[in-house]
């Protein structure tokens, strides 16, 4: 499946690339239009590297060949031409508030587009199947990632799944020690490097629970390495930032996509549970 937002993917992983791969990646970021006219040999020459290094870079970024890179670059460049707002920043006193809102809107739009286009239906089907047979569904995320975990937990509950979403790490660790191969754990961490989440993932791996990760794409993402299925969040977060914005939106979107898939696998069951939960909370409305 094509990778949406290839320039964003290259830039977000630039700090993890080394040697020739980093040099080629930087050259692509600085000259995306020129890459469209070059062969692999030409790109290797222009970036003072080798054809083998170009191929390694594509493999590292999970891009299916040089022709695919060109297609993805073209799509990115077209979207850039259609955009009129400046780069997304949160701390910019010299900019008008309207321009800041517009840049945020475009960043959010890009995150949604790229995250949706990176979803794999086979992964959705696999997770759906495991959820429907799970003895228990365990969810966890720290800080802003907990928002996405809690939202997914609420929706899974409405569809009749046995769910617990933990906020306290000590309780989560205790609960994870009691899970097994018939259970599903959904762990949310945009960085994929949050210590508490990795601690849980390691424990859950030992317990043979089925692990679903919602995280960004990075070649050395430890959470992704521990997971059975990974849903990649694509987000442009400014530096410095007030707090998580587009990454939370994209993480919420993955949960919503999973709910859409689940709800339509057994529409009769879904409608029955939605009606029951709607009636249950009706008395709490004024």
Sequence-ordered SSE layout with sheet pairings:
Layout: H1 6-12, H2 19-30, H3 32-35, H4 40-46, H5 51-60, H6 66-82, H7 97-117, H8 121-133, E1 137-141, H9 144-158, E2 163-166, H10 169-176, E3 184-188, H11 195-206, E4 210-216, H12 222-226, E5 229-233, H13 246-265, H14 267-282
Parallel strand pairs: 1-2, 1-3, 3-4, 4-5
Helix pairs in contact: 2-5, 4-5, 7-13, 8-13, 9-13, 10-11
Task: Report what the structure shows.
By secondary structure, the protein is of the alpha/beta class. Helices cover 58% and strands 9% of the residues. The protein has a 5-stranded parallel sheet with strand order 2-1-3-4-5, sandwiched between helices. β4 (210-216), α12 and β5 form a beta-alpha-beta unit. The protein starts with 5 loop residues before the first helix and ends with a helix. The mean pLDDT is 89.
In which order are the strands of the major sheet placed?
2-1-3-4-5
Rg result: 21 Å
Task: Tell me what portion of residues adopts beta-strand conformation.
Answer: 5-15%
Helix content: 55-70%
Note the overall shape: globular
Q: Tell me the series of helices and strands, N- to C-terminal.
A: HHHHHHHHEHEHEHEHEHH
Number of strands: 5
Biggest sheet architecture: 5 strands, parallel
In whole angstroms, the N-to-C terminal distance is 48 Å
By DSSP (H or I, 4+ residues per run), the number of helices equals 14
Q: Helix- and strand-based class?
A: alpha/beta
| Low-confidence regions | none
Return the average pLDDT rounded to an integer. 89
Task: Summarize the entry for a quick read.
The chain has helices at 6-12, 19-30, 32-35, 40-46, 51-60, 66-82, 97-117, 121-133, 144-158, 169-176, 195-206, 222-226, 246-265, 267-282, and strands at 137-141, 163-166, 184-188, 210-216, 229-233. The radius of gyration is 21 Å and the shape is globular.
């Amino acid at each position: 499946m094509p990778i949406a937002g290839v320039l964003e993917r290259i830039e977000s992983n630039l700090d993890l690339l080394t040697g020739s791969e980093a040099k080629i990646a930087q050259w692509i970021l600085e000259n995306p239009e020129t890459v469209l006219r070059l062969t692999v040999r030409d790109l290797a020459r222009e970036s003072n590297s080798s054809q083998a290094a170009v191929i390694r870079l594509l493999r590292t970024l999970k891009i299916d060949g040089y022709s695919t890179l060109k297609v993805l670059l073209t799509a990115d460049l077209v979207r850039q031409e259609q955009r009129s707002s400046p780069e997304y920043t949160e701390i910019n006193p010299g900019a008008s508030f309207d321009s800041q809102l517009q840049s945020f809107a475009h960043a959010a739009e890009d995150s949604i587009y790229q995250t949706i286009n990176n979803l794999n239906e086979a992964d959705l089907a696999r997770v759906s199947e495991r959820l429907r047979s799970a003895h228990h569904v365990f969810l966890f995320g720290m800080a802003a990632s907990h928002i996405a975990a809690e939202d997914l937990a609420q929706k899974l509950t409405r569809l009749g799944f046995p769910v617990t979403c933990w906020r306290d790490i000590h309780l989560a660790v205790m609960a994870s020690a009691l899970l097994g191969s018939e259970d599903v754990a959904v762990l949310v961490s945009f960085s994929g490097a949050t210590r508490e989440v990795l601690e849980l993932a390691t424990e859950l791996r030992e317990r043979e629970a089925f692990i679903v990760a919602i995280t960004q794409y990075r070649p050395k993402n430890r959470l992704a390495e521990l997971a059975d299925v990974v849903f990649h969040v694509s987000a442009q977060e400014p530096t410095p930032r007030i707090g998580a914005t587009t990454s939370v939106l994209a993480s919420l979107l993955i949960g919503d996509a999973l709910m859409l898939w689940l709800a339509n696998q057994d529409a009769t069951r879904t409608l029955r549970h939605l009606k029951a939960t709607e009636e249950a909370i009706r008395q709490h409305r004024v």
